[in-house]
Structures are given as C-alpha cells and as structure tokens.
Specification:
The chain contains eleven helices and 20 strands. With 462 residues, the chain is α+β, with helices and mostly antiparallel strands. The strands form four sheets. Strands 1, 2, 14, 15, 18 and 19 form a six-stranded antiparallel sheet that branches. Strands 4, 5, 6, 7, 8 and 9 form a six-stranded antiparallel sheet that branches. Strand 16, helix 10 and strand 17 form a beta-alpha-beta unit.
C-alpha cells in the first residue's frame, strides 16, 4: 500500500473529481444460529421422557429398556450431529457477543463466511469473488460514517488520476451533494462543455442518471455514472425549481480550465478559481503573470461555488500571495500538527475575495488565510464550512481508499468545520429573475457581489 500525500481538501467532489446499499456498519458478533441443531437441545428433549413410570418393576424394566433405547438414540444423535456438520460446514467461532470482536475474530469470521459461500452458494458467477471483495472494502469504509470517505476500485481510481491531470471524459460540470435531499447540485457547468451546451444550468438538481435514482448514492458513485467513454451519451433527470427536465448529454474529453482572468474597470484584475485541481497551480501562475504584465492596480479573487480540491495546490497558491509566515496547519487525532509556511515572496496588491455558500474546504483555506492576514476583505455570503482534510491511500492492485485524517486550521488557529467563514462585507445576489441571463448566469452589471468587490478595490487604490 502506498500513501498518497496529496491531501484532498475538497468540500465536495465534482464530476471532474475533486454504496449506501451495502451496510458495512460492523460485523455481528453473536453466536451462529443453526436452527437448534445443537447437541444440548437433543439431549434435553430426550432426557425429559425418562421419569414417567410408577412402580418398581416397570421402573427396572424401563431402566434396561430405556438404557438400550437411550444408547441407540445417543448414537443416532451423535451421527446426526456429525452428519449436519458435514452438510452445513459448521465451524463455530467463539466470539463473545457481549464484547468487541478481536481482529483475529473478525478475520476468521470473514474467512468462514467466504468459505460457506464458496462451497454452498447457489447463484454463483465467475467473478463473484471480486464483487465480494469490493463490497467488503467498500463496507469497511462505509462503516466509518464519513461522508467524505470512499473506496475506489481500479477503474474508478484511474478516472480520478485522469481528472487530476486535467483531462478526463465526461460532461464538464462541478457538482455538490445536497445532504438533506440526496440530490446532486450542478454547481458550475462549464460553458465550454457538453452539459452546458445540452442545457444544464447552475443550481439544477440531478435526481437520476440513465433512469437510476441517485439520491441514495454517494457523490463519487453518482460521478462514476456520469462519466464514461467519449462519444457515449448519458441521460440526466433534473429538477429545476418545481419542473422536471431530462437532458441527453454526449460525453467528451474535457480539459479542465480552473482559472479565468480578466481586466476590469480602473485596471482591476479579476481571477475566477473554479477548483483547486492538480492543473490549477500552473494555470494560476500563468493567469497571475498575465494580469501583472497588464499592470493591474488590485485584484479580485472569485472562489464562489468552488468546492475545494487538493490541499497541496491551495498551499502553493497561497505561498505566492501571502507574506512570510504560517499558511495553514492540520492536526490529526493524536494532536500531531503539520504546518505549511509561506516565504517572503508575496503579492503586494490590494485584494479581496468573493465567496458564497458553495465555497468550501480548499476555498475556505484560501479565504481564511487572506482574512487572517488582513490582506483584503471577504465579500459575499457565509461559506460552506468544511474544516477537515482527507488523504488517499493507494494499493498495488490499482485500488485506493480515501478518508478523513485531520482537521485544518487557518493561520490564526480557526477551524471552521460546520461554521463556515463569515464575510467582512455581507452581500447577497439579487433574487429578481431579470438580473440573470437566459442560461442562468448573472448579468455582470447586476452581480452585486462583484460590484461590491470593484468598489472596495477602487477605494484601496485611490
């Protein structure tokens, strides 16, 4: 097994990656129930019939008769017991029902269950062992009750790695799971990708994929259904407000574009960061250098609807922005801390950060650090509130597991898990539909959060 130290700080997974049916909540530890084929039950039943005679002679005769019959019955009973043993393969485990099973008990019991299935299961197919193995591994992870944890089979993990390289086959939409409804929210359909071209819009809620209801699935399972081979189609059933819509989307090779830059009025730089993926740092560096070459006077970072991504990516980006000092630190269950520091090279410009309720995890690391250093105002709405970090561990067979390994803390020691980051300047977007384009995007002149950011930066560069 290899440990992948590229921590995943994603608040939610996207279709470009950032089993509730199998209950892996632990092994039952009671004794096996074999329908009372225990020797003790036979012995008890037979002995109850030996004390019904009323006089001495019958008792004596009954004794010898009973002794003979009893011996015969005992022999039959022993034969029955061993016969049943050979039929049901009953290797009883001595597991204490009142205490926690030991590691050996769990391993032996799992071995025995597999043995019973192997020898007796009727509906067996050629690859059932692989299916069983994947179910067991997924079950172990599910038992953690960690909504950010998952088990990836070899095909799924390969897809994750492809997405990290910035090229994958899918429909091009960042998604988040609504834990209260189970729906998958299309947070950011890329306007150059097939989902957007087919008609999928921001805040659409996916309820089924190829007619399979996905509301009980994990977000990773849903993403696996969305992705597929180039040129194939996927059917999305979507709830938009109270209306149900269906879209046929043709999968394409998607090249992740996580950074978008523009120069606004008064020579103010604007950088939208849609995710913190493996390709983001390079795109960030190119985008920032391009803005600086245009002699911008200040910069607006927009991490609205950015669900997070890789811990290492956001740390490298903040190293370029922050002055010398602490960037972030993580703390594991034993209290062990690992701290990331920035060097003296920094971005010496007025800045602000735009956030909303979908800004999560790595986005909150980014936002919290700029807020703690007092480098600029945070503008918009309270963030999602994911202050924990996952790590991925890979195995030689190409599979992987991911689960939460630590909490993260901003430079001033804040853990915002379940709390979110409060903006310095709270601004909501307008509710009037006239403020939005036909594709669901807000008109720039009506973007109250962006306009507040422009106003703030103007004040700083006077």
């Amino acid at each position: 097994m290899n440990e992948n130290n590229n921590y995943n700080g994603g608040g939610y997974n996207g279709e470009n990656y950032g089993t509730d049916n199998y209950n892996g909540g632990g092994y039952n530890q009671g004794n096996y129930n074999v329908d009372n084929y225990r020797y003790g039950n036979y012995q008890g039943n037979y002995s109850c019939n030996m004390n019904n005679n009323q006089n001495e002679k019958p008792q004596k005769n009954g004794f010898f008769k009973g002794f003979i019959i009893g011996g015969i019955i005992a022999a039959i009973t022993v034969a029955l017991i061993f016969g049943l043993y050979s039929v049901i393969k009953n290797d009883y485990l001595n597991v204490n029902p009142d205490g926690a099973a030991s590691k050996d008990d769990i391993e032996k019991k799992a071995e025995q269950i597999l043995k019973l299935i192997d020898e007796n299961y009727y509906n067996v197919d050629d690859d059932y062992k692989d299916k069983l193995a994947d179910s067991i591994y997924q079950g172990i992870i599910d038992s953690l009750d960690d909504k950010y944890a998952d088990y990836y089979d070899a095909e799924e993990w390969k897809a994750v790695l492809e997405a990290d390289q910035g090229v994958y086959c899918g429909i091009g939409v960042v998604v988040q799971k609504d834990e209260s409804t189970g729906e998958i929210i299309a947070v950011n359909p890329y306007n150059y990708a097939p989902a957007y071209k087919a008609g999928v819009r921001a805040n659409d809620r996916i309820i089924a994929i190829d007619d399979v209801d996905i509301r009980s699935m994990s977000i990773d399972e849903a993403v696996t259904l969305i992705r597929g081979e180039e040129g194939t189609t996927v059917k999305l059933t979507i709830r938009r407000d109270s209306e149900i819509k269906e879209f046929e989307v043709t999968r394409e090779q998607i090249e992740s574009k996580t950074i978008y830059t523009e120069v606004l009025e008064n020579n103010i730089g604007y950088m939208q960061i849609t995710a913190f993926e493996g390709v983001t740092y390079e795109q960030f560096t190119e985008g920032l250098n391009d803005l600086l070459d245009k002699n911008i006077k200040g910069i607006i970072f927009d991490v609205r609807s950015n669900g997070g991504g890789y811990y290492d990516t956001v740390v490298k980006m903040l190293d370029r922005i922050l002055p010398e000092g602490k960037i972030v630190y993580i703390e594991d269950k034993n209290g062990h801390q690992e701290t990331e520091y920035s060097d003296a090279k920094c971005l010496d410009l007025p800045m602000c950060v735009l956030v909303n309720g979908y800004s999560a995890s790595a986005s909150e690391i980014f936002t919290g650090a700029i807020q703690d250093y007092g480098l600029g105002k945070i503008i918009g709405e309270k963030t999602y509130g994911k202050g924990i970090v996952q790590n991925t561990y890979t195995f030689r067979d190409g599979t992987a597991v991911k689960f939460t390994i630590a909490g993260y803390f901003t430079p001033n020691g804040r853990n915002i898990h379940g709390e979110g980051i409060e903006p310095d300047i709270e601004v909501s977007l307008p509710e009037d539909k006239s403020a939005y384009n036909e594709d669901g995007t807000i008109k720039k002149e009506m973007d109250s959060q962006l306009n507040e950011g422009i106003k703030y930066i103007k004040e700083q560069i006077k």
